[in-house]
Input
Amino acid sequence: MFIDYRVFYTKTGRLKYISHLDVNRLMQRALKRSGLPVWYSEGFNPHIYITFALPLALGLESFYEVMDFRLTAELPEKEIVRRIQYSLPDGMDVLSVSKPVAKAQDVASVLFQVKLFSEQPSEIKESWNRFLEQREIVVEKKTKKGIKVINIRPDIVVKQTEETPEAFIIDLLLPAGIPKNISPFLVLEAFESSANFCIDQTEIAKIDVFTKEGKQFR
Amino acid sequence: MSEPLRKKVEQVLLKVQKPARYVGGELHQVMKNPDEVDIRFAFCFPDTYEVGMSHLGMKILYSSLNANPHIWCERCFMPWLDFEAQMKEQDIPLYTLESFTPLSEFDIIGFTLQYELSYTNLLQMLYLGNIPVLAKERSGLKNLVIAGGPCACNPEPLADFVDLFCLGEGEQQLDDLSELYRKAKLEGWSKEAFLKEAAKQEGIYVPSLYEVSYREDGTVASIEAIEGAPQTVRKKIEQDLNRSHYPENFLVPYMEIVHDRVMAELMRGCIRGCRFCQAGFIYRPLREKDADVVCRQAKSLCDSTGYEEISLSSLSTSDYSGIEPLLDELLSFTEEEHINLSLPSLRIDNFSEELLERVKRVRKSGLTFAPEAGTQRLRDVINKNVTEEEVMNTCRIAFEGGYTAVKLYFMLGLPTETMEDVAGIIELAHRILDFYYAMPSRPKGKGITISVSVSTFVPKPFTPFQWEAQDTMETVKAKQKHLVETIRSKKISCSWHNVKTSVLEGVLARGDRRLGKVIYSAWKKGCMLDSWDECFRFDLWEEAFAENGLAMEFYASRKRSFDEVLPWSHLDFGVSEAFLRKENKKAYEAVTTPHCREKCSGCGANRLMEGGRCSVH
Output
C-alpha cells in the first residue's frame, strides 16, 4: 500500500546546469537520506518511485517544479516538507507538499520569464513587437519522427513585458505537456533570426504551470 | 566566493558539454570563510571531473584536510577541451569549484598522480591557473606545488615542475606538512628555507635537494643529497587503519561519474606479491581494517549520501580475513535498505561456494577474473599463484550459479613470454568454453560469452620486473595478431589497449629527470589529456623526444643490469632491493613465492611499521 504525494520545489543557481537525469538521481538520493518511509517499486530491481510532471531543460531556473512520489504511511505534510528540505542541496527549496489534485496529463501550459540583457533594451522591445506583428512564425522543430515545419505564432501568449535599464523582460505563456510542447528556446531562436541585433545574455526561468482549464497545476 | 569570475563562467556554461563538471555546489562540499583559515589548499586531480570525483584517495584527503580548522581544501579538475577553449577566449583562469577562486591565489597546490599519462595535465592545469609550470620560476612560498599518489614512487620525470613530493599515504603526512607550512607562512620563511625543513619530515622528497649525474651511456651515475637532505627518503604509512581518518560523508556529484557509490576501504597492501603488480609492492605492508569499523563507516556513508550502492575497496577483496562475516553483516542492512553491494577484485583460487552464495545475493551480472597469463609456466613466472584447475573450478561454481558471461583479464609482453604463452591465453578460453558445454548442469537455453581483455605489460619501479625490457611495439603487435588468429569460436571475443599508450606509460614510469624537458616540449606542442584516445598525439611525443636528443627505447625497451643506479634508487617504499632481485631471479626460474600468510618472504616492508612488526602472522 502507498499514498501519493506531490512536492513543489524550486531549482535555482548552480543547479540550473544539472540535467533532468541528474535531478532524477539527486531526488532518489535525497528521499533516501530524508528517512521518510518512501515506497519502492516492486520487481527485480526495486527503486524509489518518483515521477516528474514536466522535465526541465538544462540551463533554466525554475520556481515551480513538480515531482510525485509515494509513502508507505501517511505523515503530516509539514513534516514531509521539513524532511525533504533537509535533504536537498542549496538551490532547491521545497515550496509545498500535498496530495495530487490534477493528473500529470492535465498539464497544458507553462509560464516562463525571459530576460534579454542588452545595452539598449528599448531596441529589443521594438524588435519583439515587430516580431509579434507577423501573422506566421514558421520554425523547424525537431521531433522523434524528424524535423517538422510549424507555425508557432498562435502558441505565443505574452502575459506581460517590462523594460529595465539592462534588460527587456517577457512573461511568456507557452503550450507544454503531452499533446503539444513549445520550448522557449524555439521562440527565442526565431526571434533572434528575425532581427538584427545582439542579445548579451539570456536568462529563462519557469514561473508557473497550468492545466487545460487555466488553473494552476496542483 | 569570487562573484565576477562565477558570472563569467556562467556565461559560457551552456556552450559546453556537461556543464555540471564546472560549477561545484554538490552535497557535502566544504565551505569555509577564507579569512578564518591560514592555508588555502587546492586539491588538483589531473583528469576530468568524472574521473577525479571517483577517486577514493581524493575523498579521504579532502575530508582529512578540511577536518583541520586552519586549512580550507577545495577541488580543481582538468577541464575538457570545449570548456578550455571558452576559458581561453573569455580569459577565465582555472579555478576551484567550491569558491571560484583562481588557482594562483592558493597557498598549496596539490596534485595526485594516479597515472603516468596525466603528467601533461599537471602542466596544463598550472598554466591555465596562471602559475609558472617550472618550479624554479616560482620564487615565493605561495603557490607551492606538491604531488603524491602511486606515480610519485618515481617522481623524477616531474622534478622540474613539482616543489616536493609526498611519498606514501597522505592522511597524517599532509597534516604534518601543512602544520610546517602554516608556521613558515606566519613567520615569513623563504621557499628554500621551507623546503629544507620539509625534507626532514618522513616521506617528503624535495627534488631540488638532490643532484643527479649521468654516465656517458645515459644511465644514472649517482644521486647525491645536498643541503642536509636525507640520502634516502622513506615513504610514510598509516600505522593503524582503524584509527586513520575516514570520511563520514562523500561529496555526492549531480552528474554521473565513473564510480558513483559508497566505497568502503577494507585494507591497504596485498599479501600476494604478483611480480608485475606495482600496487602489490608499493602499498605494503598489509594492514586490515576491523570488520566492525568497515561496517560502521559504510553505514554512516550510506546514511549521509543516500547512495544506493556500496563497493568494497581493496587490492584483493577475497583475501580480507573477515570477508564472510563482513558480508553477512553488511548484507543484513543493505538488503533492508535497498542498497546494492559490489565486490570487485575477487581472486580465482579462494573463491568459495560460500562466497558465491553471498555474491549471488548482491550481483547478477557477469563474473570477472584475472588469470593474467595463458600458461602455467608464465603464471609461475609472474607469481600469479593460480592453477588451471582453480580457474576451471571457479568457472564451474560460477556456471552452476547461473552466470553465463565470463570476463578474463590477461597481459601481453610479460618477461620470458613466448608465442606459445600467447596462444595459451586463447587456448584457456577455449577450454573454459568446452568445459561449459560438457557440464550437464549448465544453465539451459542460455549462450555463453567469454570476453578476453588483454593489456600490455608495463614494467614499473619497485617491482621485481623493474629491470626488465618492455616489449617493443612491433613485438606487441605481432603477439596481438597471433592472439586473434588463435580464436576458433565466435563465443570468444578479444580486446586490447592501444600499444602506443603503453609505450609512453613505460617510458614515463621508469624515466629520469632528463624527461622533464621532453614533457615540457610535448606539452608546448599541445599534448594533454594523453590518456584519452581522441587526444593522444604519439607523433608529437616522438618529436619532443627527438628534439631533446633522447630515445623512448632507452627508457622502455632496455633491460637494466642489477648494478645500474635506477632513477628512484634514493627512495624507499619498504620492499628492499635485495628482495626484488631475489624475486626477479625466481621469476626466471619459474619458481613461485608463497603469499605472506603462508610464509613471510622477508620483503622488508615490516620496517615501515612501528616496532618493525608486520601485521601478517
Q: What stands out?
A: The two ends of chain A are 23 Å apart (CA to CA).
